[in-house]
Amino acid sequence: MTVARTICLGFLAVITVGTLLLMLPFSTANGHWNDPIVALFTSTSAVCVTGLSVVDPGTYFSFWGQFFIALLAQIGGLGYMTTTTFLILLIGRKFDLRDKIAIQQALDRTGISGSAQVIRSIIATTLIFEITGVFLLLPAFVPDHGWDKGLWLAIFHSINAWNNAGFSLFKDNLIGYQSSFLVVFTITTLIIFGGIGYQVILEMYLWLRDRFLKKTACQILSLDFKVATSTTLLLLFIGTIAFLSIEFRNPQTFGGMSLRDQFLLAWFQSVTPRTAGFNTIDIGKMTTAGLFITIALMFIGASPGGTGGGIKTTTLRILTSCTQSILQGKEEVLLYQRKIAINLILKAVGVLVGSVGMVILSTVLISLTDPKLDFIQILFEVVSAFATVGLSTGITGTVSTAAKLILILTMYVGRVGVLLLMSAILGDPRPTRIHYPEENLLVG
To answer: What is the pTM of this model?
Structure first.
């Protein structure tokens, strides 16, 4: 039982428990036993913080069913190892070396020291952001739905936004609040900070604290921080401009809206593919160019250590820096005047190849099971599932049972990670002292 197998089987265990809970009669609004496929799909989508749903969560599930979805999304966002480690801390058990290594792999940390403190910081950060999100959403939801329902709506959407899950209790998702600056600002802020990574947030806090206290030895920002923040900001800017340029003439999305509302829509649409799944426009009515831009942003995803999916911003920067080095004739890959180790480059290539392979395989299989669907719809759904986004053109509930099972597997692989899953299947690599001679090969 390797660490990778522990993490993968842990997610499967949580999905199984969630499926059983969502099948119970008191989890559905009609009080009947739930369809096993619907329960399995919803549980997988929640634990994998995807947000894809074959039913309307707001009307299909009872309060307890919605509560279980929020709880599963919280566990999925924190991660199986983070949740179990927090429970270990609560009962007072000390960490052993295996626990520290598991936390390191689950959170993409560089070291194993200070694991308990990291878990406490993650839980505290999560609570602070989610509670703040609840208070900010109350003024928008309470006047429309009353205190009881408004409070639950604020809690549910705050949890889903922070964990980049994307489940909504509104039938039209957040389209009804597309012009609300408060809702758009709150949801997008939670999505961005939830997906950027706990380590980045902690570094930002320490840096601001040292600046505020005017300490002589200020916090030095790591390479992870610089890459994650700069890439995130660049993608958000490019996405906003791209959607504004492409969709502003589309009467079914941006067309006819005021300039202020168009900027809100473009900003929200730029944030949500990374990788939350909320929408303030009808995704199925976007132009083909807009759908492809969304697919690209979904595939890139969030940053390591966060609640989002995708190949991650750091992988993108390493690969683009490799390309830049080749074009410039350099033999080293540099980022912010730091040399990138060869093992990180190989890992980035492995993530890209594995992710592309999984997307192609799932797209081909669903094309065979549901040949009547358009290719762009299938590709969009598969990338959304793999990158744990949750956006859909509206076909999730209409696909065949076989396609739903394929999407379930795709969501699971996207959440645990291609490399981690292969490591769980193949086992830990064995060191070898055998080295082979180099030889040239024609490339490109």
So the answer is: 0.90
